[in-house]
Each structure stands twice: as structure tokens, then as C-alpha cells.
Amino acid sequence: MEKSFKITASEGIHARPATLLVSSATPYKADVQLTYNNKSVNLKSIMGVMAQGIPAGAVVTISAEGPDEAELLNKVEEVIVTQGLGEKC
């Protein structure tokens, strides 16, 4: 399963939003990847997410595979939307 989002936060995905995303994904068993500019990183890795250097206006894809993939993607979407980080594409 996967979902795409347009990042609307003016500062992009820096330390605070990266921490929120990693924290939202960590409790789940499914493997989850964040893809930006054809490069994928583990969404459970704060360093991996921050290393992407995702700016405002970027489109990212979050993909999950595992027993609780739907719940994980729903939680990540909730965090992105409610925290003002982005919107679903």
C-alpha cells in the first residue's frame, strides 16, 4: 500500500516534523518507506528522513508492507494533515 503527499509546511520536513513522522510509524510492525526524488529511506529512521532534505512543495510517497500497513499509513496521513505538514495528493 502507498499514499502520496504534497509537503505544504513552509520549512519542509526538518527536525520537528521528521520526529513526528518517525514517532508515528515506529509502533507498527509493517515495513515503511518514504520516497522522495527516487530515493527511499526507512520512515522509522530519523536520520534517514532528515537526510532526504525534503523542501516545501515536494511530493513524497509513503509505502508500507506488513500486517498493519493500513493502520500505519492512516496514522502517518493523520500526522501529516493535522500537524500542517502536507496534504494528500
UniProtKB/TrEMBL annotation:
<keyword id="KW-0598">Phosphotransferase system</keyword>
<dbReference type="GO" id="GO:0005737">
    <property type="term" value="C:cytoplasm"/>
</dbReference>
<keyword id="KW-0963">Cytoplasm</keyword>
<dbReference type="InterPro" id="IPR000032">
    <property type="entry name" value="HPr-like"/>
</dbReference>
<dbReference type="InterPro" id="IPR001020">
    <property type="entry name" value="PTS_HPr_His_P_site"/>
</dbReference>
<dbReference type="Pfam" id="PF00381">
    <property type="entry name" value="PTS-HPr"/>
</dbReference>
<protein>
    <recommendedName>
        <fullName>Phosphocarrier protein HPr</fullName>
    </recommendedName>
</protein>
<dbReference type="InterPro" id="IPR050399">
    <property type="entry name" value="HPr"/>
</dbReference>
<dbReference type="InterPro" id="IPR035895">
    <property type="entry name" value="HPr-like_sf"/>
</dbReference>
<comment type="function">
    <text>General (non sugar-specific) component of the phosphoenolpyruvate-dependent sugar phosphotransferase system (sugar PTS). This major carbohydrate active-transport system catalyzes the phosphorylation of incoming sugar substrates concomitantly with their translocation across the cell membrane. The phosphoryl group from phosphoenolpyruvate (PEP) is transferred to the phosphoryl carrier protein HPr by enzyme I. Phospho-HPr then transfers it to the PTS EIIA domain.</text>
</comment>
<dbReference type="GO" id="GO:0009401">
    <property type="term" value="P:phosphoenolpyruvate-dependent sugar phosphotransferase system"/>
</dbReference>
<keyword id="KW-0813">Transport</keyword>
<keyword id="KW-0762">Sugar transport</keyword>
<feature type="domain" description="HPr">
    <location>
        <begin position="1"/>
        <end position="88"/>
    </location>
</feature>
